[in-house]
Amino acid sequence: MTTTEIKPATTASPTASTVRLNFAKAAPKVFRAVIGLDAAAREGLDPTLVELVQIRSSHLNHCAYCLHMHTSDARKAGESEERLHMVAVWQEAEHFFTAKEQAALALTDAVTRVADAGVPDAVYERAATHFEEQELAQLLALILTINTWNRIALATAKRAGTDER
């Protein structure tokens, strides 16, 4: 490279050799608290619905680490490849999902993108027609939790496919 050549800028995303913070080790009380929130949020919810919500939020947040983990977990639990592929485009493929799953996915979209338009009344009311109050609170907690996990994974550069839990 000569002095007149411009060196390409490096990307902001970490490389495979980049090591970032081990969140669980650096903040164990916080990490355990998020694990506790995650476990509490899942209580009483259909495990299939849990994975669909976690997959959708991970799509929206571009979190490859969590997306890989939750699609793998869903497959192990018996979820079909067909439905897994349709989560990203669920609004155009509603017939793959129950009305309750659609309501949960719509709420996931709104809560995950809350900065864009808040949570519209129609989206909330749609979810409220399919979920009893306690189950709806659990669903909201699940959406909040996966958004937290997505942000932890993205901020600490967790690598998809490692499934370090």
Describe the 3D structure:
- It is a single chain.
- The chain is mostly helical.
- The protein contains 9 helices and no strands.
Task: Give the helices and strands, then pairings.
Blueprint: H1 23-26, H2 28-42, H3 47-60, H4 64-76, H5 81-86, H6 99-112, H7 114-117, H8 121-130, H9 133-155
* N to C succession of SSEs: HHHHHHHHH
Give me the number of helical elements.
9
Regarding quaternary structure, how should these chains be classified? single chain
List segments where confidence is low: pLDDT < 50 over at least 5 consecutive residues.
Answer: 1-12
Q: Tell me, rounded to a whole number, the average pLDDT.
A: 90
Q: What would the principal axes of the Cα set say about the shape?
A: globular
C-alpha termini separation: 43 Å
Helical amount among residues, as a percent range?
Answer: 55-70%
The strand count comes to: 0
Structural class: mainly alpha
| Major sheet attributes | none
Structure summarized in a few sentences:
Helix content is 62%, strand content 0%. With 165 residues, it is mainly alpha-helical. Mean pLDDT is 90; it is low at 1-12.
Keywords:
mainly alpha; 165 residues; 9 helices; globular; disordered N terminus
